[in-house]
Design goal:
alpha+beta; Rossmann fold; 4 domains; six-stranded antiparallel β-barrel; 36 strands
Length: 639
């Protein structure tokens, strides 16, 4: 359950003009007793401190408690992330704040669970955040020593809220360690299970009365759902970050006027596109309110002597195409350029005129060919002969997109975190030969399917840009008809992305052109096993929506689907007079040959999908593309 932290931490945004913001930023990379060191939390703390400063928080109002405090911006106070230091920093922030002020608490490190012995969880488990000096279970105190228990944090929160102080909590840790099989991969989970903490099996949670919920204005964000794990990953230059912290910081920097709900949605989309198979969560009455802070943000990056003061942390990658300008507000470009070298915080351009002082991302580079890791045997006791599979697998790459896992006589294709079946039995796609296929033929077919699906997602996302400040030309409302059977859809109800859907459920999209320009609309579906299915338009029917016009698009979840994360992509391109309609379903391989030549947008995207194609320069890029993504949590069919 998510209730414990909901009773602990509260968050709102700054509303009074003279109110102040204070922050306690925690990053626990090195554990003094537990054998559980992480690589990313200290980097996460540095990144969050920089992001808060960019959003207008005074550096002197920030306390950073990180295992490695090097590289921090000037101004914040520092200390080690121990149990007492964290509680003292929170108490000091409360003491220094008054009615209307805001306190930001960020935590990156390990989480855990322990049996509740106070009864305030109603017979459940306490959720823990583990400081650097956390040890293990101590029977004498009936707790994990030096852990930050939800009871401790609730007491601080209640005291803080009683003064009229608002609290923001951003938690990059998780508490679920069961139901997963991590058998390989580069991601490291940010959770410690009960066995590692030495919690005896005979310790039983105490029945009692749950603590009352907090009252007031709040919103807080979690790195994953309560039944998921959170991961940290290495970036291409070797710098490690929690996936949630990295994407959240990028979104906060790019969206000066967004609400917390918009920030959460954009962060979720970025994570779904990346290596993480985790879905962030958030709650609080002020999810729809604007994010705190008044610091300036801009989608353009400063440029000096051919070098950008931005890099991987800002979503830039080698091969990305940029437009160069003389000033931050110029509308007339000076030139175009390509990024040739990108590190975490800087990048080098192919060429730039002397007057160019600012650069704006135009499009991401074409996706690289699909790369696999070396195969991993899920069960060391498995005596199945996998030689036909291993002989067919391609050589492993350095930064794999997928981890082949040998299990139950076949190959499962896990994400870079190497987690097998994170969403239920068989939720990791299996390669299953069709009648008459050899293992090598089935593998080739499946990898081609995965390569195209992943490349198409990356290409479309890279072509849409990253700005959250503009209004999209489409409004999409989704409803659901939960199936009692595949032949009997239930009543139509509002769709909540947090609720899982099941095979045979129907989803209906009401798509309205809310712009003043006609839009060509396409809808694609990305499945958990990497297939892309064309949904709309069908049979070459018109997909052009006039201003104010609405169309309804329906789809049914495949009856043979298993659990996993899937996506609906609603795509829009402004219509051009006397030009053919843009139909992006053409990007999906089908058995039907289409005689009509593709429109300029489709043709441009096709060149981006071809790894061997040479970029023709983004001055040839056609009208802007809008991509609205809806994440779907697919649950298996109940027997």
């Amino acid at each position: 359950m998510r209730a414990p932290l909901a009773l602990i931490l509260s968050a709102t945004l700054l509303t009074p003009a003279q109110a102040e913001i204070r922050a306690v930023v925690v990053g626990v990379s090195d554990y003094l007793t537990l054998d559980a060191d992480l690589k990313g939390p200290s980097n996460d703390a540095r990144l969050m401190a920089e992001t808060l400063i960019a959003r207008g928080v005074p550096p002197a109002n920030i306390t950073v408690l990180a295992s490695d405090p090097t590289g921090l911006p000037a101004g914040p106070s520092t200390a080690q992330p121990t149990h007492d230091a964290i509680l003292q920093a929170l108490a000091a922030a409360t003491t220094a704040s008054t009615d209307g002020d805001t306190i930001v608490f960020t935590f990156s490190g390990h989480g855990a669970q322990a049996p509740d012995l106070s009864g305030d969880e109603g017979g459940g488990y306490d959720e823990l955040l583990l400081p650097a000096d956390a040890t293990g279970w101590k029977g004498a105190i009936g707790a994990v020593e030096n852990a930050l228990v939800d009871d401790d944090l609730q007491a601080w929160t209640q005291q803080t809220l009683a003064k009229g102080i608002q609290v923001i909590a951003l938690i990059d840790a998780c508490h679920s360690a069961t139901g997963f099989r991590a058998v390989g991969g580069q991601g490291v989970p940010k959770v410690i299970d009960e066995a590692q903490l030495g919690i005896p099996d005979d310790v039983i949670p105490v029945e009692g009365t749950p603590a009352p919920p907090l009252s007031g204005d709040f919103v807080f964000l979690y790195s994953s759902q309560s039944d998921q794990r959170s991961f940290e990953y290495p970036m291409p230059d070797g710098t490690w970050h929690g996936e949630f912290t990295l994407r959240l910081a990028q979104t906060l920097r790019a969206a000066p006027a967004a609400s917390w709900e918009q920030i959460l949605t954009a962060t979720t989309e970025a994570m779904a596109q990346g290596p993480a198979r985790q879905m962030p969560d958030g709650e609080g009455p002020l999810l729809t309110a604007q994010v705190f802070g008044t610091g300036p943000t801009t989608p353009r990056f400063p440029l000096k002597d051919g070098h950008l003061a931005a890099g991987l942390l800002d979503g830039l990658t080698e091969g990305a195409e940029l437009t160069l300008y003389a000033t931050p507000a110029d509308t007339t470009p000076l030139a175009t350029a390509t990024l040739t070298k990108v590190t975490a915080r800087s990048a080098t351009l192919s060429a730039a005129p002397a007057k160019a002082q600012w650069a704006e991302l135009t499009s991401a580079p074409p996706p690289k060919p699909l790369t696999l890791a070396a195969p991993v045997l899920a069960d060391p006791a498995d005596t199945t002969d996998y030689r036909a599979w291993t002989a067919a697998l391609p050589p492993p790459g350095e930064t794999p997109d997928l981890i082949p896992i040998l299990t139950e006589g076949t190959v499962a294709l896990a994400g870079p975190d190497g987690t097998l079946d994170p969403d239920g039995k068989n939720s990791t796609p299996r390669i299953r030969p069709e009648p008459g296929e050899t293992e090598a033929e089935a593998l080739q077919r499946t990898l081609e399917q995965a390569a195209h699906g992943l490349a198409l997602r990356a290409t479309l996302a890279g072509a849409t840009g990253r700005s959250l400040t503009g209004n999209p030309p489409l409004t999409v409302t989704t409803t659901r008809r939960a199936a009692t059977s595949c032949d009997q859809p239930g009543p139509q109800t509002p769709f909540d992305p947090k609720d899982p859907v099941a095979p045979c459920d129907q989803l209906w999209l009401s798509i309205t052109n809310s712009s003043g320009t006609a839009q060509d609309v396409s809808v694609l579906y990305f499945t958990a096993d990497f297939r892309v299915q064309p949904i709309y338009p069908t049979q070459n029917l018109s997909n052009r929506l006039a201003p104010g016009e609405t169309t309804r698009v329906g789809l049914m979840i495949d009856p043979t689907s298993t659990a996993g994360l899937e996506e609906i992509w609603t795509l829009a391109v402004p219509a051009t007079a006397d030009a053919p309609r843009v139909d992006l379903t053409r990007l999906v391989p089908t058995d039907t040959t289409r005689a009509t030549p593709p429109d300029p947008m489709t043709a441009w995207l096709e060149t981006r999908l071809d790894p061997e194609a040479t970029s023709r320069g983004f001055n040839l890029k056609p009208a802007p593309l809008t991509m609205l993504r809806q994440i779907i949590r697919l649950a298996p069919m109940e027997n």
